[in-house]
Amino acid sequence: MHDIRAIRDNPEAFVAGWSSRGVDDAADVVARILALDVDLRAAQTRGQDALAKRNAASKAIGAAMGKKDMAEADRLKAEVEALKGEIAEAGEAETAKGAELRDLLAGLKNLAAADVPDGEDENDNVEVLKWGEPRTTGPAKDHADLGEALGLLDFEAAAKMSGSRFAVLKGQLARLERAIGQFMLDMQTDKHGYQEVNPPYLVKNDAMFGTGQLPKFGEDLYFGLSRRSARLKELKDVRRNFLHKDNFDYEVAFTRKEFSRVVRRMREVSLDRSRDRIDVFASSINALVAGAKVSDSNLWLIPTAEVSLTNLVREQILSEDDVAQPMRMTALTPCFRAEAGSAGRDTRGLIRQHQFSKVEMVSICRPEDSEAEHERMTGCAEAVLQALELPYRKVLLCKGDMGFSAQKTYDLEVWLPSQNTYREISSCSNCGDFQARRMDARFKRAGEKKTEFLHTLNGSGLAVGRTLVAVMENYQQEDGTIAVPAALQPYMGGLKTVGVASN
């Protein structure tokens, strides 16, 4: 979320900032924001003025009654009634303009930091460093073909139960994936000082909004429907099928008893479709809907543990002592994304799955600490790749290629021999106060009355599936087996090779 006062004070900076991040007609957007801000403040002023007049008139009524001036008292009472209407009208305008302004601001990207390069897409990103020597000799089989040939990676079975972009890992390969996740989690906790957290995988709308997934990326998320919502959908279908109406858009929840009663009526109507019985059935549905309560039981599956970890400080005011050192948290969780992907190398195999595991790192800190913390977090992700001896490069993303909530992002790209190129395996972002404003997460400095918004950072340390891909491809051997990196062997019970019956 953005600070309306900052936009008000320096609109040109936001026009330039959003234009550089690919926002079309940024000048018109800022003009609309400022116009809504003027309308909102005008409505607030009208309401406050009318309220003050009503309070004064209410006091004056008592004085007039004390003087037995009934004519004046009646006049003041009429004035109070008129002012009530003005207050209500101003309140409605304030609510409408406030909601419109919040919705507009909520859909706009974070501004980039000053040292982020200009650019439109990945072609304009800046390489910061390379580590390790890319493998250009020896076998370069694609990880999907390699895993299938070993009988340890099954896409067909996964597709039958879940659809495309899912996978079943078996035997030694499943163990290797588990070892990678545990190794990375141990490194971030034992060596880098992150606190391990086991967070919820299902979160409310507010949590998704706080980190920037909603409302912008709702279509890329998985929505967990409650049983009540499922019954609602069935009831919608009932009305559409039997009453030929498609305006049933109530967001309601029904008890099992209520729903059973409606289904019984549906069956009765299906046997006798006379107009009067249909009308009765329609009336019963409408009456049921009118008395039903709105359901708040639906939850979102997390696209990454960033959502859960960052929201641990939502709607809190921390002391300066709490963030004298950055709060550092990490979690190994499943992640769920429904984002679209073009057919080919990104959707075949394990590169871009709808379900995957990741070790997420999150830091919460003071504004003056976030830049250094960003460099440190990225270094923690790099350490994993170095320990696994996987060649990679570090890239500073340009303004046009950064994520919605980020003000500065480093990507780590690991070498994949089958593609003869580097592919993203980690993204580490400094979000500044962008997420904190959406979550209302603040801190108070010692001796100060005012509060300040915290800064939040997140990064992959790393994506488990993509790390598995990198290990498989960089450690594949001529006989089709996979050597286990030395750092992972203690997590594999001493197993040194994946794909051999006994070793």
Account of the 3D structure:
There is one protein chain. By secondary structure, this protein is of the alpha+beta class. The protein folds into 3 domains: 103 residues, Serine-tRNA synthetase, tRNA binding domain (Helix Hairpins, Orthogonal Bundle); 231 residues, Bira Bifunctional Protein, Domain 2 (BirA Bifunctional Protein, domain 2); 66 residues, no CATH class. 45% of the residues lie in helices and 17% in strands. The chain has 15 helices and 18 strands. The strands form 5 sheets. It has an 8-stranded mixed beta sheet. A 3-stranded antiparallel beta sheet has the order 5-7-6. Strands 8-14-15 form a 3-stranded mixed beta sheet, with no helix packed on it. A hairpin with a 4-residue loop joins strand 12 and strand 13. Helix 2 crosses helix 3, helix 5 packs across helix 15 and helix 10 runs antiparallel to helix 11. About 4% of the residues have low confidence.
